[in-house]
Amino acid sequence: MASVTDLPADRLSLLDVREHDEWAAGHAPEALHIPLRDLPAQLDELAKLPDDQPLYVICRTGGRSAQAAAWLNANGWDAVNVAGGMKSWHTEGRPLVSDREGAAPEVL
Predict the structure, then answer these.
(1) Which is the catalytic residue, given 59, 66, 80, 82?
(2) Whether the predicted pLDDT of 9 surpasses 90
(3) With helix as H, strand as E and coil as C, how does the chain read?
(4) What's the pTM value of the predicted model, to 2 decimals?
(5) Is 57 an active-site residue?
(6) How far is the C-alpha of 24 from the C-alpha of 97, rounded, in Å?
(7) Which of 23, 35, 58, 69 has CB atoms 3.0–4.6 Å from 82's, for a disulfide?
């Protein structure tokens, strides 16, 4: 597990496992979005990420991302759960973007 303050500032491989509405409301600009329930079926998407660094997994507060990180680690990935999730991401002042036109980004 890693806190948001421990995450690298650049070359960050970040997987967001929240639901579509949560993602649309606000997410990290460079994150890859695969909802937790879809993860086993979309491993080919993860292959696009660099494999020479950890894959940080994030959700709203850390519960779903802990499940995802455990599953990924059991399947050969170097996955790290982000403690506090997007709530901590936002609190720490990390960048946040929204997919909703005209709406300010927020963490649902």
Answers:
(1) 59
(2) no
(3) CECHHHCCCCCCEEEECCCHHHHHHCECCCCEECCHHHHHHHHHHHCCCCCCCCEEEECCCCHHHHHHHHHHHHCCCCEEEECCHHHHHHHCCCCCECCCCCCCCCCC
(4) 0.94
(5) no
(6) 9
(7) 58
